[in-house]
Amino acid sequence: MKEEEIKKYQDELNELIDYINGLFNFLPIPICDLSSTFFIIQVNKAFENLTGFDSLEITGENIEKLFPEKEKLKKIISLLQKERELQNQELILTKKNGEEIIVNTFWAARIKKEEVEGFLLAFIDITLLKKIQKEMEEEIKLKTKDLREKIIELEKFQKIAIGRELKMIELKEEIKKLKEELEKLKSK
Amino acid sequence: MEKTYLTKEEVAKILSIPGNVRGTSILADLEYLKKKGGEEAVEKLKERIKELEIPIDLENVKHANMYPEAVSVLIVLLIKEILNLDEKGVFEMGGAAMKLSPITKILTKFFLSFDAVLKRASEYWKTYFDFGELEIVDYDKEKKYAIVRLKGYKFHPLLCVYHAGYFYQVARVALGSPKITVEERKCTFRGDPFDEFYFSWE
Known about the structure:
Structural class of chain B: alpha+beta
CATH topology of the largest domain in chain B: H-NOX domain
Strand content of chain A: 15-25%
Strand content of chain B: 15-25%
Largest sheet of chain A: 5 strands, antiparallel
Number of strands of chain B: 6
CATH topology of the largest domain in chain A: Beta-Lactamase
CATH class of the largest domain in chain B: Alpha Beta
Radius of gyration of chain B: 16 Å
Strand order of the largest sheet of chain A: 2-1-5-4-3
CATH architecture of the largest domain in chain B: Alpha-Beta Complex
Number of domains of chain B: 2
Helix content of chain A: 55-70%
Shape of chain A: rod-shaped
CATH superfamily of the largest domain in chain A: PAS domain
CATH superfamily of the largest domain in chain B: H-NOX domain
Oligomer: heterodimer
Largest interface: A-B, 27 and 29 residues
Radius of gyration of chain A: 36 Å
């Protein structure tokens, strides 16, 4: 290959690397590149910001370091090896400071010549959403309980009210009958 | 540990050794320096480069371009000097080079398995260097060991530690095993004709 040609390819490769790096670090979603043995090869800035792990300390570590639910992770990995792509897999992630958050994970295999070269993993922190969801569920539970109690009260009231109404009708009937009897007596 | 400083004589001696490497190697070491010592450490490195008249413009190093390996070696030695690293620190820096180089990340195809890494080690070396040779002289999957030989590379004894760190990290990712030991059993600086690294794992 001519020197000029080599330089051209080098320049193109440099541009491509800068572009990939720029894009990778611009993305606000934590992304991580995994080896076929599920070791972390690369993480982006959003990953560092969310997990608190610096790329230097987390690169080269097994993915298990992030996800404490071993059995659940094993199932996801086994499914991923079959399906090659998975979405919306909820997992607990342990941050560097030990805090546990809930993330929705997305996985994809990187395939070349029908061979899995590695995997891409992206995740979204849904802890706040989950908290809001739980709070809403609790609130709905409370409101439902409240509503049930109110219905019971209403039913009781209705029963009483209907009972009174029936009694009134009965009394009215009785008055009517008595009036009629009185009229009869008067006419005699 | 006593702090050592590179001298102009040492620099001239190393710069006289031929061979080139991709800029990504220099950039990964720079990134390591920035992470460990911050911008201040990078500024110190630039000052020392100027002082020692090392022919490199750190602002314009590109990942895929070739630069003298001697310059890359001198940068490693200066980072050791600035961060006051011991051998363990240099070993860690070698491992970090694997972690921080974007080209390495692109080359994760090499990390399919340890078999694949060993099979393509020579090709992998040639992606980075236009000199020297990396070969696998022995590998026993059952007994869990491998011997890797590096020929035609003699710049500075500390680079053996740096390479051991790099190989350790590659092996760790490829083997998926955290319990790996790497030992340099032969060294050109001890009179051997090549460097030889012995890997074993559990």
